Write the structure tokens for this entry.
Amino acid sequence: MPQQFQFSKPLWKVLKDTKVFETPIFSLHQVDLLPHRTEEQVPFYVLNAPEWINIIAITPENKIVLVEQYRAGIHESSLEIPGGMVDDGEDPLEAAKRELLEETGYISDSWNKIGKASSNPAILSNFTHLYLAVNCKKVQDQHTDGNEDIKVHVLPVSEFLNLVKEGTVHHSIVLAAVAHYLLHKMDLP
């Protein structure tokens, strides 16, 4: 078994955590911190968000199920893997199964957690749980939530990886999931 990495930097002391703004998806907090090496208080701004999930969904024909959707932050469409938020009190695996079915109409009988990623730990408080679902089969039409407008694409895995390589697929959490997927396929100790 590989040796665990031992972090050596001490945590900074939280002096105050003030909610500045709240939305239906996240809240913005000003967190006043005291670095371990100084007595000077430092303010940081953190977005507290729920846990997220992303799924590498592979069909029996070795094709990957993808979603194309508009992203307001970049004002462009983005090609991604299915994913979404974990509802309050929901298990991440159950959220992954729910999101795959809702967004794509696909289900799987074989799930593996292949990792987790912190999207941007400088400002985001949450993690994204990454899953591999194999033997995915379409069982229904998609049933998206409210303002979701998703087009499903099913591509050979090799074609998808070329889209990653050339930069067409650029969502950072998707890229993290691809890295974990490739490491999982390599079956590193």
User: Anything to note?
Assistant: DSSP finds three helices and twelve strands in the chain. The mean pLDDT is 95.
